Amino acid sequence: MSVLFTLENHVARVVIDRPERMNAVDRATSDELETIWRKIEADPTVRCVVLTGSGERAFSAGADLKDSNGLSGLEYWASANPLGFGGIALRRSLKVPVIARVNGLALGGGMEMVLGCDIVIASDTARFGLPEAKVGNLPLAGGMTLLQRLVPRNIAVGLMMTGRMASAVEMERYGLVNAVVPQDELDAEVDRWIADILASAPLCVQAIKATVRETGEMPPDQAQAVRSPELIAALTSEDSLEGVRAFREKRAPVWQGK
């Protein structure tokens, strides 16, 4: 497996090649992904990330059980990436929005990567699942802790205990997927979401992501009192003044990201 990375017009695209066979314990693959995430985090010109798989078969089918390096379940748990599957499922240091472009199967670790994204756009042929229990494993790289926070509790438990796959339409109904479109419209739909993100003030988008992630489990009054660096940066930015000026002048704002 390899990972393809491109950056154009403020949009970073991360494409998992051969997504039907992603080895979770492959150090080279993990290092490659980590290098990409750090590169994105260090580049202030990046305003949006799209994560997807190559072709139409899979977003990512997770770890390859035929190539597990002989690790026991306990050993895998002990050696697991603390940032979750693919270095993205539990990652908190990535400030810009990540769109999961789900073009097929998102299973196991692939599903865990989806759970680490902010917006999920899926083809109507996409399927989601955490089938680990069917093979005597557990969704240890973010699945058990994240899914229950993003869909109703009984839906999450039911999917994990049975290993069932859910359709894109089902996951849209449960609130995990933002939009479902035919496969041949997937890129156009993703592009529409990208355009809307780029039309918004970049520091405001970052502040929204930071606030949502940091306060999701707090009582509302405590969450309201949080003053994150991203929130302060957005409120004191030149862009906050530009937005008001542009509205009054009936023109599109020119965002500086500062």
Written overview of the protein:
- Its EC number is 4.2.1.-.
- One of its GO terms (biological process) is fatty acid beta-oxidation.
- GO terms for molecular function: lyase activity.
- This is Carnitinyl-CoA dehydratase.
- The structure is a single chain.
- With 258 residues, this protein is of the alpha/beta class.
- The protein folds into 2 domains: 3-197, 2-enoyl-CoA Hydratase, Chain A, domain 1; 201-249.
- The chain contains 11 helices and 10 strands.
- Helix 1 links the parallel strand 2 and strand 3 (48-53).
- The chain is globular.
- The N and C termini lie far apart (38 Å).
- Rg of Cα set: 19 Å
Which class of secondary structure composition applies to the elements? alpha/beta
Shape, principal axes of CA atoms = globular
In total, the number of domains comes to 2
> Sheet bearing the most strands, described?
6 strands, mixed
Strand content: 15-25%
What name does the CATH topology of the largest domain carry? 2-enoyl-CoA Hydratase, Chain A, domain 1
Concise synopsis of the structure shown:
The protein is α/β, with parallel strands linked by helices and 258 residues long. It has 2 domains: 3-197, 2-enoyl-CoA Hydratase, Chain A, domain 1 (Alpha-Beta Complex); 201-249. It has helices at residues 27-42, 73-79, 109-115, 143-150, 153-162, 168-174, 186-198, 202-215, 220-224, 229-235, 238-248, and strands spanning 2-8, 11-17, 48-53, 58-60, 98-102, 105-107, 119-123, 127-129, 166-167, 179-181.
